C-alpha cells in the first residue's frame, strides 16, 4: 500500500470538525462550549487562523497544552436505585475542555473539589482497555492456579467477568469448594487493589442425575452468607448463552428462535404487505428506504459470512436476495448490450445486440445502441489512492479565505415578503457583477427525474459574471470559467448550498 505524507489541517477540515460538535453539550472547567468556538469562527479571520496554527503546531511539535488535560466529573445519581449508600449507584459524567483531561475535579451539587491527577487508566471504550485488563489479571490467575487450596478448580475470565468452575460427585462438596476458592480469589484481588462485588455473584449447578436437589452456596461474605446464602438459578445466562442444568440448551434455542420469529413477522408486516401504507408516489420515504437497505445488507452479510465492508450489490446477488430497483434496471440493460460491454452478466438469448446482424445494427438507432457504442468512453476508472483525493488538497483546503458563502434561509412565517426581498437583492448583485468585465458568471442547472424513464442531466452557459446550479454543473462551470485568462472573480448562485460546499 502506498504511504501518504501528513498534510496539515486545513480551514475546511476544522470547519467540518466543529460542525459535528453539539451546541448543547455542557462545558468543561473553562466554561467554553462548542457554540462559543463556532461564533469565533464567524468573527475576525485572524482568530480562526490562530486556532488553526495552534492545532497544527500541537501535532508537529508533539505537545498537548495543559489546559486541554483538565476535566470535571459531575456525579449524577442513577434512577430507580433502592439505596444510594454505594458509589455504584451514581454515574460520573466527565466534562472536558474540548478534548481530554489528565487533571480532574469533582462536582457534587454546589460543591466543586480541587484539581487532582487522573493519569491512571484509559478512557472507557479504548482499544487499549482489554489489553491492559488481560495483562493485569494474568498474574492473579497464575497465583490462583498455584495455590494448593484451589486444586481441581478452574478460573475463567472475560475482561471483568470471572467464572469459578468446580466439579465432584456431590453438589454439597461443590458448594464447600466454591466457598473456599472464592475466599482465595477475594484475598488475591484485595492484594492487587481490586474489589469483588459480592452482590453480583451467581451460582449454577450442572447435574446429569434425575435428582431435583439444587442447594444454595454460603459465599462467606455479605450479603450471601449465614441465613441468606446464594440461591442457584434454574437457567444461567453467560455471554449471551442460556444454560440449563443438563446442558440440553432447550431454553437457549427457545429464547432465540422466538426472538427470530418475532423479527421475521415484524419484517413481513413492514416490507411485504405493510409497505403500501408508507411507500407511494411522491412519498418522502428516503430515510425509511435507507434503513431497509441497511437491514437487507446486514441480512446478506449474515447469510454469506463475507466481510462487513463487502459491497451491498454483490453480497445481495451472492445471497440470492432481490436487489434494489435501480440495480435491477442496470442489470437488465447490460443484458441487452453486446458481449464486450455486458461484463459478467449473461446476454439475453434473443433481445441482445449481440444476436443482431451488422445490417440490422446499421439500420437501427436508439438509446440502447448509443449506450453500447459509448459505454467505454463514459466509464470512469476511480483510483483509490489518487493524489487529488489526499486530505488537504481540496479546493476549499487551499482557497478557503477566497471563497465566501451568502446563505439565506427563508422563514415560514413571512415567506412571500422575504422571497421578494431576496430576489431583489440577487438581481442587484447580478447587475453589479455584470459591470465588471473580468468577472465571469455562468447559468447552470441540473435535473434528476423521479421516473426511471429519463436520465439525469447537467448543463451550463458561460457569461461575463457568476455561477449557479448543482454539483456536476457547478464543477463544469468553474473549470470553464478558470480557463479564461482574464477571470478574476467567480460568483455561484445555487438553490442547494450542500452541493456548492
UniProtKB/TrEMBL annotation:
InterPro entries: RT_dom. Signal peptide: none annotated. Residues 1-229 form the Reverse transcriptase domain. This is Reverse transcriptase domain-containing protein. It comes from Psilocybe cyanescens. The lineage of its organism: Eukaryota, Fungi, Dikarya, Basidiomycota, Agaricomycotina.
Amino acid at each position: 500500500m502506498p504511504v501518504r505524507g501528513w498534510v496539515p489541517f486545513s480551514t475546511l477540515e476544522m470547519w467540518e470538525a466543529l460542525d459535528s460538535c453539539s451546541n448543547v453539550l455542557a462545558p468543561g472547567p473553562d466554561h467554553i462550549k462548542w457554540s462559543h468556538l463556532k461564533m469565533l469562527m464567524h468573527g475576525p479571520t485572524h482568530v480562526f487562523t490562530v486556532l488553526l496554527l495552534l492545532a497544527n503546531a500541537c501535532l508537529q511539535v508533539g505537545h498537548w497544552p495543559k489546559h486541554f488535560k483538565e476535566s470535571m466529573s459531575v456525579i449524577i445519581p442513577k434512577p430507580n436505585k433502592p439505596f444510594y449508600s454505594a458509589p455504584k449507584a451514581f454515574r460520573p459524567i466527565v466534562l472536558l475542555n474540548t478534548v481530554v483531561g489528565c487533571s480532574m475535579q469533582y462536582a457534587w451539587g454546589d460543591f466543586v473539589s480541587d484539581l487532582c491527577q487522573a493519569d491512571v487508566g484509559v478512557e472507557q471504550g479504548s482499544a487499549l482497555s482489554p489489553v491492559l485488563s488481560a495483562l493485569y489479571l494474568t498474574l492473579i490467575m497464575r497465583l490462583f492456579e498455584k495455590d494448593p487450596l484451589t486444586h481441581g478448580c478452574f478460573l475463567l475470565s472475560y475482561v471483568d467477568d470471572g467464572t469459578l468452575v468446580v466439579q465432584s460427585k456431590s453438589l454439597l462438596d461443590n458448594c464447600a469448594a466454591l466457598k473456599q476458592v472464592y475466599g482465595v480469589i477475594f484475598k488475591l484481588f484485595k492484594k492487587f487493589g481490586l474489589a469483588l462485588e459480592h452482590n453480583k455473584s451467581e451460582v449454577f449447578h450442572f447435574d446429569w442425575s434425575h435428582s431435583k436437589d439444587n442447594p444454595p452456596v454460603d459465599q462467606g461474605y455479605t450479603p450471601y452468607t449465614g441465613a441468606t446464602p446464594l440461591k442457584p438459578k434454574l437457567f444461567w445466562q453467560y455471554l449471551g448463552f442460556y444454560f440449563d442444568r443438563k446442558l440440553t440448551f432447550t431454553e437457549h434455542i427457545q429464547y432465540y428462535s422466538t426472538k427470530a420469529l418475532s423479527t421475521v413477522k415484524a419484517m413481513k408486516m413492514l416490507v411485504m404487505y405493510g409497505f403500501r401504507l408508507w411507500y407511494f408516489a411522491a412519498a418522502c420515504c428516503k430515510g425509511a428506504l435507507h434503513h431497509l437497505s441497511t437491514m437487507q445488507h446486514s441480512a446478506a452479510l449474515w447469510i454469506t459470512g463475507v466481510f462487513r465492508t463487502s459491497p451491498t450489490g454483490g453480497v445481495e446477488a451472492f445471497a440470492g436476495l432481490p436487489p434494489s430497483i435501480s440495480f435491477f434496471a442496470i442489470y437488465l440493460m447490460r443484458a441487452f448490450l453486446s458481449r464486450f460491454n455486458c461484463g459478467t452478466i449473461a446476454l439475453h438469448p434473443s433481445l441482445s445486440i449481440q444476436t443482431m446482424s451488422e445490417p440490422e445494427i446499421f439500420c437501427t438507432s436508439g438509446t440502447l445502441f448509443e449506450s453500447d457504442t459509448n459505454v467505454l468512453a463514459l466509464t470512469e476508472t476511480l483510483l483509490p489512492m489518487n493524489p487529488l483525493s489526499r486530505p488537504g488538497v481540496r479546493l476549499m483546503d487551499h482557497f478557503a479565505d477566497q471563497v465566501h458563502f451568502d446563505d439565506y434561509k427563508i422563514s415560514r412565517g413571512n415567506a412571500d415578503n422575504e422571497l421578494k426581498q431576496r430576489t431583489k437583492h440577487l438581481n442587484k448583485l447580478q447587475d453589479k457583477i455584470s459591470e465588471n468585465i473580468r468577472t465571469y458568471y455562468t447559468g447552470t442547472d441540473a435535473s434528476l427525474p423521479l421516473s426511471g424513464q429519463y436520465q439525469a442531466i447537467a448543463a451550463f452557459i458561460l457569461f461575463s459574471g457568476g455561477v449557479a446550479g448543482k454539483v456536476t454543473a457547478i464543477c463544469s462551470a468553474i473549470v470553464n470559467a478558470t480557463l479564461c485568462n482574464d477571470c478574476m472573480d467567480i460568483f455561484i448562485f445555487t438553490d442547494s448550498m450542500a452541493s456548492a460546499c
